[in-house]
From TrEMBL:
Protein name according to UniProt: K Homology domain-containing protein
GO molecular function: mRNA binding
Record keywords, A-Z: Repeat, RNA-binding
Compositionally biased residues, Polar residues: 30-47, 198-207
Pfam families attached to this UniProt entry: KH_1
Domain of life according to the entry: Eukaryota
Gene Ontology cellular-component terms listed: cytoplasm
Keyword Repeat: yes
Residue ranges of domain K Homology in the record: 155-243, 317-382, 548-620, 629-712, 716-795, 800-872, 876-953, 957-1042, 1177-1243
Region spans: Disordered: 1-70, 192-214
Organism of derivation: Rhizopogon vinicolor AM-OR11-026
Biased composition (Low complexity): 52-65
């Protein structure tokens, strides 16, 4: 018989028995043996586990439960729960002290056990290291208990971490999220000082990440306080954040001793090696004695430590030795000489400063290198010839000469004349106490002699040419300010230069010099003295007039100096004024180190008195303002409104601060508090935020009033979602959002439209809005008003923004759009439609395309009618293609595309270039294909294809022959307007090219080149075509190559060869004179008529020029080409006048002659169309650019751009060859379109369609 575990437990009365081995923190309550059992599940394996088979219970005697032979103890089986365990060791346990007594470890563990649902066991080894074993049901409880236990047992530590100011934002995180995460994870306190209280320390060798190359970033000390292990953990987390933001840093090693700095820089290769291949940069600042290291963070830290170690090492091993050398030889131990000595003997030579009287030279180096270094220094000091040139005395004259030479930079002029010599003049400090002034000249003796000679000649001219006059230095500024022009005239009239000493020197001697370098200088001492005397009298007279000058010192505490100066010196500049010669020095600028609480004012007495009065008033106002601004008030607002009041990055508070000049502080103490209501129910009480405002009382009260009003508005804030179809959103928002912004400003609300993805219409706004929803947020009244106006606008749009969709044949879309969208835009402008969209995706078979028109009912109906009218004009289309060798393309297209236009016209196609576009498409330049594509009406396409095939066949059989024709006969053979040449070409079917024509070289080599080897190239005429035709044409040309032969040949043809002349048909057309120039198109129209076999005779021609005269530009509109941000702007002038204002009245009779009635009818039709087009050209625009630099880009290669613009816009464009004006003639819309297209072309960017 098998017994279950529950039955065995009942039999042995083990239910509720205590555990004989309880854990340290586990309570051991004794439970009754009769315990109410929970309902058991008979099917549960957990409640009823199977056991191994055993003998029947009756056969075994009953034994004691606690005996040695009791067998295994079986507990009641309960539902198991997961247990989380953790073990850790604390090396140093510091038990807390309470009420003056130290608590035990057991008491601490009991507190933790009681507070959290954990079990804790502890053991201590011989090294006093305590190991803790913890168990809990959840990881969260385990972590809390572990943190609390360590907080009790670990010593409290305070760590300081220096962080670059630029990383503080990352450490804090958005709304403090990152810093809060660190605090919650470690349980430590992290203090970051306020921005305005951060010191800008500059410790030697401190790592300082720099935002730029020169400006050093402030380091912010972050204090971490808490249990030692958690403080270290928090420090590591913050360092990781800093490292992620400062992977590249810059450190400076400052205050390096001057004699060590050079030795340290010689170790540069070693420092690079220490970087271990990482990128670093070393920069030396000789003046500040510092080395800057920038680059990878780890490498920079290693290199800085190595530099510091090197400084300490050199400070220990370097020693010095001093020797005395004449001061002039010190000149040879500076500059490049220092580098050379360091390279030769590893020693540094440091001469005494030129301003010091000492003649000592100090040599630094290692003891073993000093002996060699001293020898090299002595050799270098005696390596060059040095000459001391004494300035003539007495010392007063020497100083005058030195002052003049210094002011005109005479030493530099000498160095330029003698580049192999070095010239050194005494410094001002040396000249102040020296009894003799010398100019040191270093170089080869021959070179030095040349310099000495030049100086001697120069000084010889200065003898008797200098003079000093005493003028109180207080009035120097006044004299220079009021008599600047007169001082300049002294040199022009008297050849005398006036040199005032620097104001900082406070010297009263003014130097006058008779300019020896002037071409008009006189060598006569008497003349020099006379001019110097005249100028000195004038200066003394000026000084007497400006004698009303005084200086007044005001005792002002240093703390008020900044108030007097003002931000950026604004207050001080206002006190000084623009036209006064006041000088105001504040504090240390006065020069008295013992007393900085002073302000010195110097100038004219009246100005000084005024300035002193204003300064005292500024200080008095500042003192009163300090008293008045000490007023403060505090009040509370709900925490939920703080973010809106503060604004993004403090913009809301900054607005109040800037407007009212107050200080506003916001403090938050706690997030939320839970308040118990009754026994179980809890409610959340929102903590108030305290706002403190400090400043002038009236300003503080106004700021408080504004903030409370804002809070009241926020409390009154509501929101409403309107259902508005997405199709109306764009018009309700307006261009650039102007309509929506106007509503927001008028009613103080926020209106949000959904920004949706074109793929799935998912909202991209912060609020979850559907595609047809609009959100209005703000005050209740504002929301209601904005809603009302928005719905009214919606109703208006529904009435006026109708949408009409219809289909057109896909083949007509290109004609409807026009090139560059010209036609569709004209339809939109003419009908008043708001928008016309052409669907990019046609139906499945591509036969129809959908067009959507937006606007009023009348506008969309008119637009639909106009579009369908164009679509109806486009008949059934077909496409065809044929392959033509690239070498024939140019010949078929012709100059300016004229050959192709004539071909289409001959085949019965349209003559309008706009309609012709797209009918025949040749491969573009650069394409390797030979395929020519045709698209249009089937009949026309087939005819053009046949014509092209015939032309290609003729071109393939074409040969090129040459004939010698004297150049003097070329003009006669060509004839006026090419008439004779055209007759010959039409009669024989060949092409004849004379030397100098544009297509002459394109004909290629001729077959009979060997026959023409000795012929002058100017006499070679090329004939291209079929061989028989070429031979016939050459025969005619040969006959005509002698004087009068051509006329004899014509008579011969008329008599013997030519058939009787066909009957000539004539028609008469009346053409207004004012349209003549527009129709003729500079003769191209008549050439088109000749293609039909029609010639024109005109009864009269207009006498006035074709291009109207531009009106004057006064009052003209100025435009700018500045679409691109970086493109330079061009100022242009644009004027539009009516066309034909001063045109000639009357008509001209055109007589059309031809042999074919069909040709005459076609010519009459073309003339009537041209007259209608000319009548529509009602405007003339004059576009004037600043220069002609953009004209080549506008005209294009061989006029291609202008031709393209004419075809696209329908306007006639004339680019002047002489002026900067472009004349545009056409309808008003065509003129404007042409102007815009030209400006785009001139700006250097291709037009966008």
């Amino acid at each position: 018989m098998q017994l279950t575990a529950a039955e065995l437990q009942k039999r042995h009365e083990l239910e509720g028995a205590p555990d004989p081995f309880p854990s340290l923190g586990e309570a051991t309550p004794v439970r009754s043996s009769r315990v109410a059992q929970d309902p058991t599940n008979a099917n549960s394996i957990t409640d009823f586990p199977t056991l191994a088979p055993s003998a029947p219970a009756a056969s075994a005697p009953v034994k004691s439960a606690w005996g040695s032979d009791a067998g295994p103890r079986i507990k009641a089986t309960v539902k198991s729960t997961p247990v989380i365990t953790d073990s850790f060791t604390v090396t140093q346990v510091e038990l807390p002290v309470r009420d003056g007594k130290q608590t035990s470890l057991g008491e601490v563990m009991k507190q933790v056990i009681a507070k959290f649902k954990v079990k804790i066991e502890a053991s201590t080894n011989q090294n006093r290291h305590t190991t803790f074993h913890m168990r809990a049901e959840t990881q969260k409880e385990l972590d809390k208990a572990k943190r609390t236990l360590l907080a009790y047992l670990s010593p409290l530590a305070t760590l300081t971490l220096n962080a670059p100011a630029s990383t503080i934002a990352a450490i804090i995180g958005p709304k403090g999220a990152t810093l809060t995460k660190v605090r919650e994870a470690t349980g430590v306190k992290v203090d970051i000082p306020r921005k305005d209280s951060t010191p800008n320390g500059h410790a030697s060798g401190t790592a300082t990440p720099l935002p730029g190359d020169d400006e050093e970033e402030v380091m912010v000390p972050i204090t971490i306080t808490g249990p030692h292990p958690y403080a270290l953990e928090a420090q590591a987390m913050l360092k990781e954040i800093i490292a992620s933001r400062t992977s590249t840093i810059t450190q400076k090693v400052r205050d390096i001793p001057g004699h060590i700095l050079r030795f340290v820089m010689n170790c540069r290769p070693h420092f690079i090696e220490v970087a271990q291949g990482l990128e670093i940069y070393l920069t030396l600042n000789q003046a500040d004695r510092e080395i800057t290291v920038s680059g990878d963070r780890e490498a920079v830290i290693r290199v800085v430590e190595t530099i510091k170690a090197s400084i300490e090492a050199f400070g220990t091993i370097l020693t010095s030795f001093k020797i005395s050398l004449p001061k002039r030889q010190h000149r040879l131990l500076v500059g490049k000489a220092v580098d050379e000595i360091m390279e030769q003997c590893k020693c540094l030579v440091v001469p005494a400063s030129p301003d010091e009287p000492s003649d000592e030279v100090t040599v630094w180096g290692k003891p073993e290198d000093l002996a060699t270094g001293l020898g090299i220094v002595m050799t270098k000091a005696n390596s060059q010839y040095i000459h001391e040139f004494p300035l003539p005395g007495p010392i007063a004259l020497s100083k005058q000469l030195l002052t003049y030479m210094t002011r005109i930079d005479y030493a530099k002029a000498l160095a330029d004349d003698h580049p192999d010599a070095s010239i050194f003049t005494p410094s001002p400090a040396t000249a102040a106490h020296a009894s003799v002034l010398n100019i040191d000249i270093v170089g080869e003796k021959s070179v030095v002699d040349g310099v000495v000679k030049q100086i001697s000649e120069f000084i010889g001219k200065l003898i008797g040419a200098t003079k000093e006059i005493p003028i109180d230095w207080l009035v120097h500024r006044v004299i220079q300010g009021k008599n600047a022009k007169k001082l300049k005239q002294f040199h022009e009239v008297h050849n005398v230069q006036v040199f005032f000493p620097p104001e900082s020197a406070e010297q009263s001697q003014v130097l006058l010099v008779y300019d020896p370098l002037s071409p008009s200088a006189s060598p006569s001492p008497v003349e020099k003295g006379k001019h110097l005397e005249d100028v000195s009298q004038e200066l003394l007279k000026m000084a007497k007039e400006a004698a009303d000058v005084k200086s007044q010192a005001i005792q002002v505490e240093k703390r008020w100096h900044e108030t007097v100066v003002g931000k950026g010196g604004t207050t001080l500049n206002a006190i000084i004024g623009e036209d006064t010669t006041l000088s105001i020095k504040v504090g240390a600028q006065v020069g008295d180190a013992s007393d900085e609480d002073v302000i010195l004012v110097r100038g004219v007495s009246v100005d000084v008195d005024r300035a002193v009065k204003e300064i005292l008033q500024v200080i008095e106002d500042a003192k009163n303002d300090a008293i008045v601004s000490s007023y403060s008030t505090e009040f509370d607002i709900d925490r939920e409104y703080v973010g809106r009041v503060v604004g993004a990055q403090g913009s809301g508070l900054n607005r109040h601060r800037d407007a009212l000049g107050v200080k506003i502080d916001v403090s938050d103490e706690a997030d939320e508090k839970e308040k118990e209501v009754g026994k179980r129910k809890k409610v959340v009480v929102h903590q108030k935020s305290k706002i403190k405002i400090t400043g002038r009382k009236e300003n503080v009260e106004e700021a408080k009033k504004r903030i409370l009003a804002q809070v009241e508005r926020l409390a009154d804030e509501t929101s409403e979602v309107l259902k508005i179809p997405n199709q109306y959103h764009a018009t309700l928002i307006g261009q650039g959002g102007k309509y929506a912004i106007r509503l927001e400003e008028a009613y103080s609300v926020k209106i949000t439209f959904p920004r949706s993805s074109a793929e799935n219409w998912e909202s991209k706004t912060r609020e979850q809005l559907k595609a047809d929803e609009v959100l209005i947020k703000g005050g209740k009244k504002g929301v209601a008003s904005a809603k009302s106006e928005l719905l009214e606008a919606l109703e208006f749009e529904k009435e006026n923004n109708k949408i009409l969709k219809f289909d057109v044949p896909t083949r007509s879309v290109a004609r409807i759009l026009g090139k560059g969208g010209v036609i569709i835009n004209e339809i939109k402008d003419d009908t008043g439609a708001q928008k016309i969209d052409v669907d990019k995706f046609s139906d499945g078979n591509g036969s129809v395309t959908q067009i959507t028109v937006h606007g009023t009912k009348e506008a969309i109906d008119a637009a639909k009618s106009a579009i369908l009218a164009i679509a109806d004009q486009v008949g059934e289309e077909t496409t065809a293609s044929l392959f033509i060798d690239t070498k024939f393309h140019r010949a078929i297209i012709g100059a300016g595309g004229q050959g192709l236009k004539d071909l289409i016209t001959r085949c019965g196609g349209p003559s309008d270039p706009k309609v012709q576009a797209g009918l025949v498409r040749f491969p573009r330049q650069g394409e390797t294909s030979d395929e020519v594509r045709l698209r249009g009406e089937p009949k026309l396409v087939n005819k053009v294809k046949e014509e092209l095939e015939e032309i290609v066949a003729a071109l393939r059989d074409r040969i090129v022959l040459a004939v010698e024709i004297p150049a003097s006969q070329h003009r006669n053979l060509i004839g006026r307007g090419g008439q004779h040449l055209n007759d010959l070409q039409n009669r024989t079917g060949v092409q004849v090219q004379f030397p100098g024509s544009r297509s002459y070289n394109q004909f290629g080599e001729f077959e009979n080149a060997s026959d023409m080897a000795d012929v002058d190239p100017a006499n070679i005429v090329k004939v291209s075509g079929a061989r028989k035709a070429c031979e016939a044409a050459i025969a005619e040309l040969m006959v005509c190559s002698t004087p009068f032969a051509y006329f004899r040949f014509l008579r011969c043809l008329q008599t013997h060869v030519q058939p009787p002349a066909p009957e000539v048909l004539t028609e008469t057309v009346s053409v207004p004179l004012k349209y003549h120039h527009v129709i003729s198109q500079q003769g191209s129209f008549f050439r088109t008529l000749r293609n039909f076999g029609v010639t024109v005779e005109q009864a009269s021609k207009p006498q006035k020029p074709a291009v109207p005269t531009a009106p004057p530009q006064n009052g003209s509109v100025t435009a700018r080409i500045d679409d691109a941000e970086d493109a330079p702007s061009l100022e242009i002038h644009w004027q539009v006048i009516e066309n034909y204002q001063d045109a000639e009245e009357g008509d001209s009779e055109w007589t059309l002659k031809g042999s074919d009635a069909t040709g005459l009818e076609r010519a009459q039709s073309l003339i009537q169309e041209a007259i209608a087009q000319a009548a529509a050209m009602t405007c003339v625009g004059f576009l004037s650019l600043p220069d002609r630099s953009a004209f080549p880009r506008i005209v294009g290669s061989k006029g291609s751009n202008v031709a393209r613009l004419r075809n696209e816009t329908g306007a006639d464009i004339t680019v002047s060859r002489d002026t900067c004006t472009i004349v545009i003639i056409g309808s008003e819309s065509a003129v404007d379109a042409a102007k815009d297209a030209i400006l785009k072309q001139a700006s250097g960017r291709p037009p966008r369609y």
